[in-house]
Amino acid sequence: MIEYNLHTNPDFGTNAEVSAFRTESGICEYNVMLHSTRLTSSFREQLEGLHNALHEIEDNMLCRRAHAVIKRYFLSDAANQTVVLEEQVQNFAPCAVSIVQQPPLDGSKVALWVYLQEGIPVLQRNGNGTFSYKHNDYTHYWTGYRHISGGNSEQQTRALLEGYEEDLALHKCHIVDNCVRTWFFVRDIDTNYAGVVRGRRDNFEQMGMTSDSHFIASTGIQGSHAETGVKVVLDAYAVKGLKKGQMSYLYAPTHLNPTYEYGVTFERGVCMEYGDRQQLFISGTASIDNHGNVLNVGDIRNQTKRMWENVEALLAERQHAFDNVVQMIVYLRDIADYQVVKQMHDEQFPNIPKVIVWAAVCRPTWLVEMECISIKESVNPEFAPL
After folding, report:
1. Nearest residue to 118 via CA among 216, 243, 245, 22
2. How far does Cα 234 stand from its chain's mean position?
3. How many Cβ atoms are within 10 Å of 78's Cβ, its own excluded?
4. What does pTM read for this prediction?
5. Which CATH number characterizes residue 257's domain?
């Protein structure tokens, strides 16, 4: 069962959109989108407001027994804001942290997505931005803000993936069998995305991932690090202890084509089966048809509608619908489209926690893209609960 709540706190100048997936036994999951309403305040003041609101949610409200497993900060000016943010993050229990310059389009300087789970042990720090926890038969590894400087985007992508794979191997994991989801945040995506595509494709071939096997659910989107030499930032999620059949992929062939047909190597979405639930992680999805063509060029309203239709088709492959979605992130190329897209999403999905940020999509003619997470209760006796 999913519950949606909105918590407005005038004292902190925040709105907190919360989704709660509850089960009678086992882990409860929460997704929180925190927004600042004090648009004329400084970055430090807005960030403190978000953090105070998060403390209140964790301590006094729905999530009092929950622990954050990953936080993603959406910044308007990473070069001037990251140092302040890293200072304040120290006031929270450690977890994976992702920091990306993707300005929130509501006019604020910072927004925050927090994914929390209830009933899990304290997270362990594994280094290189990775934190883990073990529960039931599984060990979960969340990685945030992995980056290097020097070289071009292709070289950085290769190095990031190789380092990530080496770290997985230390825990007797492999990217092919254990990685659930990746995010690639790319500085100046119109220039650097081609290098990311080449670096990822070459690495995956070396790891044994081809069009005959499978790739990994992913979002590749504009996003900047504070340092100009960093062309690519990697976030990732992996799970150890999975049995055959627990991880499968989503295709929606009536609406979307396989990504390898236009030279990229990621899956449209992934389904995680556990003993008590299904989790779907939907990759970045835009207005595209099942031949790889961009639809509704120059038309933000119809691109948004087709994007929803494509996501809906992916969800439907596992009998999910937007009623099961617990969070969404929407990326816009043109800030002038914000009011239209915000109104459309508020009317269509008034309760789902969401953030809309300024971030160009990997093809210039794509005006809007979204990703989301969906959860549904399910009984799978052959698998342990989450």
Report:
1. 22
2. 11
3. 22
4. 0.97
5. 3.30.1330.40
Q: State pLDDT tens for residues 111-140.
A: 999 999 988 888 999 999 999 999 999 999
The whole-angstrom separation of Cα 284 and Cα 329 is 9
Question: Rounded to 5 degrees, what are φ and ψ at 26?
Answer: 95, -165
Domain ranges, residue 81: 1-120
Specify which residues 251 forms β-bridges with.
none
Same domain as 135, residue 101? no
Residue where a domain terminates, one of 94, 120, 146: 120
Q: In the predicted model, is pLDDT for residue 228 greater than 90? A: yes
Contact 105, 35 (CB under 8 A): no
The token pair at 322 is 């937007």
At which of 204, 221, 242 does a domain end?
242
Q: What's the number of domains the chain is made of?
A: 3
Q: Parallel, antiparallel, or unpaired for β 2-9 and 14-21? A: antiparallel
- CA–CA separation, 114 vs 18, rounded Å? 10
Strand 14-21: give its sheet, edge to edge. 2-9, 14-21, 29-36, 110-118, 66-75, 96-101
Based on the fold, state whether residues 256 and 383 are members of the same structural domain. yes
